[in-house]
Amino acid sequence: MIPLFAYRDNSCDPRRCSVKKLERRGCVRVFARVDKIPRSSLILDPSAQQALSPADRTPKSITALDCSWEVFEKIQVARWPLRRALPFLVAANPGHFGRPFMLNSVEAFAAALVILGEQEQAEEILSAFSWGIRFLEVNHDPLTEYAAAKDSAEVVEIQSCYL
């Protein structure tokens, strides 16, 4: 089991927030300050230069940035030691269903876990949501291919087939 963390700025509705639901279930630890996130954690950062790949398989933890874009641009994660962007995937959450790159935090965690070889943990966190497993169904082919890639360059090459 890879520990899951989230930086959360409380900008979204707490009744609909996937991170809050995971926190209530004990699946994720939430931080209100970026400097509290362990420096050894892999940050899921959409602006990272490198794509997440199986080569990153042994992170000490995974951290999602659950905040608005305005806040995201102000927080200091650019100098974080291990930042990775998720490759092309399609959202299955009700707010963004079918939209590419519009994953909510639980989908981002699940995608990262599948790519890193932790399918069971991904299914476990998605099971908290009525639509959760649908995310794995919608993205089955790309997730399977990304999880079989050897490194970030190969993930980007695979991604280009889906774009």
UniProtKB/TrEMBL annotation:
Q: Which InterPro entries match?
A: Tsr3-like, Tsr3_C
Q: Which GO terms describe its molecular function?
A: rRNA small subunit aminocarboxypropyltransferase activity; S-adenosyl-L-methionine binding
Q: Which GO terms describe its cellular component?
A: cytoplasm
Where does the record say this protein resides? Answer: Cytoplasm
Enzymatic reactions = an N(1)-methylpseudouridine in rRNA + S-adenosyl-L-methionine = N(1)-methyl-N(3)-[(3S)-3-amino-3-carboxypropyl]pseudouridine in rRNA + S-methyl-5'-thioadenosine + H(+)
Keyword Amino-acid biosynthesis in record: no
Tell me which Pfam families the record gives: Ribo_biogen_C (PF04034)
Q: One biological-process term from Gene Ontology?
A: enzyme-directed rRNA pseudouridine synthesis
Main subcellular localization, coarse class?
cytoplasm
- Keywords carried by this UniProt record: Cytoplasm, Ribosome biogenesis, rRNA processing, S-adenosyl-L-methionine, Transferase
Q: Which top class of enzyme applies to this chain?
A: transferase
Q: Which residues bind S-adenosyl-L-methionine?
A: 18, 65, 86, 105
Q: What is its EC number?
A: 2.5.1.157
Note the superkingdom of the native organism.
Answer: Archaea
For the 16S/18S rRNA aminocarboxypropyltransferase Tsr3 C-terminal domain, which residue ranges apply? 42-163
The protein's matches in NCBIfam families, at most eight in alphabetical order, are given as: PRK02287.1
Q: What family does this belong to?
A: Belongs to the TDD superfamily. TSR3 family.
Q: Note the PANTHER family from the entry.
A: 18S RRNA AMINOCARBOXYPROPYLTRANSFERASE, RIBOSOME BIOGENESIS PROTEIN TSR3 HOMOLOG
The function of this protein is: Aminocarboxypropyltransferase that catalyzes the aminocarboxypropyl transfer on pseudouridine corresponding to position 914 in M.jannaschii 16S rRNA. It constitutes the last step in biosynthesis of the hypermodified N1-methyl-N3-(3-amino-3-carboxypropyl) pseudouridine (m1acp3-Psi).
Could you identify this protein by its name? 16S rRNA aminocarboxypropyltransferase
The organism's taxonomy opens as: Archaea, Methanobacteriati, Methanobacteriota, Stenosarchaea group, Methanomicrobia
